[in-house]
Amino acid sequence: MKHEWKKQEKVIYGVKTKPYVVDIPAWNYIILSGSGDPNDEIFSDKVAALFSTAYKIKLAYKALAGESNGITDYTVYPLEGIWNMASEKEYLAKEELQYRIMIRQPDFITRELFDHALEAVKGKKHNPYLTDISFETICDGRCIQVLHKGAFDDEPASFERMDRYCTEQGYRRMGKEHREIYLNHANRTKKANLKTILRYKVTDSGK
Q1: Left, alpha or beta for 150 (phi > 0: left; psi -120 to 50: alpha)?
Q2: pLDDT tens, position by position, for the chain (207 residues)?
Q3: Count of CB atoms situated within 10 Å of the CB of 123
Q4: Distances (CA, A) of 153 to 39, 81, 95, 115
Q5: What is the Cβ-side half-sphere exposure of residue 49, based on CA atoms within 13 angstroms?
Q6: Backbone angles phi, psi at 193, to 5 degrees
Q7: CA dist 95 to 19, 43, 79, 185, 191, Å?
Q8: Using CA atoms, how far apart are residues 179 and 198, in angstroms rounded to an integer?
């Protein structure tokens, strides 16, 4: 059986344009950290390093692990990013953005398999950011999320909807950072057709 996240994890990824609360468990990711404008070439090189590793892990799983819990193959998860600002400016200064970009890994992917795949990629690719990729577990916990349709620069309108929902439903945002999950390829999709899940952590307003 092939695990396909679009079909089998609709509560997490089948997001609509109306905000809702979701509890996100701990998952494993391959991660790269950085700062600066995501339109810069450095960012693209880091994304390429992550996907090269993610697909090598998938191939290694098929070749070495064979099958786990009835799963013989899986679809590589989408690119995600946790974003924050280095300063307290009220406007978005892209050159001051801090980020951790990542690709989620299925539960049956082990650190050992990651290490094996990463070394194999390093032997074939000459991307300097391969050496910086880490394998980590992150738990987002209780969050509000929504589907944003359109250009990244138009995301503030979707965040406003999330903030209103948060207030109306008695939740309080935790921190300024947020997560973005990119459901399609920005360089191959018209801006009007981009689909991005926006998510941030919340707690009950009384806590």
Answers
A1: left
A2: 889 999 999 999 999 999 999 999 999 999 999 999 999 999 999 999 999 999 999 999 988 755 556 788 999 999 999 999 866 666 678 888 999 999 999 999 999 999 999 999 999 999 999 999 999 999 999 999 999 999 999 999 999 999 999 999 999 999 999 999 999 988 889 999 999 999 999 998 755
A3: 7
A4: 12, 15, 14, 36
A5: 25
A6: -100, 5
A7: 29, 12, 21, 22, 21
A8: 6
Q: Are 28 and 105 in contact (CB under 8 A)?
A: yes
| Unique residue bearing structure tokens 């439903």 | 169
Residue with tokens 């690719």: 125
Which tokens hold the place of 71? Answer: 């799963």
| Residue type for position 168 | E
Q: What is the phi/psi pair of residue 190, to 5°?
A: -60, 145
Task: Give the predicted TM-score (pTM) of the model.
Answer: 0.93
Check: CB of residue 140 under 8 Å from CB of residue 179: yes
- Residue 14 corresponds to which amino acid? G
Which residue, among 206, 186, 204, has the nearest Cα to 195 in the 3D structure?
Answer: 186
Identify the bridge partners of residue 100 per DSSP, sorted by sequence position: 33, 82
Run of H or E including 141: strand 134-149
Nearest residue to 113 via CA among 25, 28, 21: 28
> Alpha-carbon distance 174 to 21, whole Å?
14
Handedness of CA 44, 141, 131, 120 (dihedral sign): negative
Question: Which neighbouring-strand residues pair with 143?
Answer: 22, 201
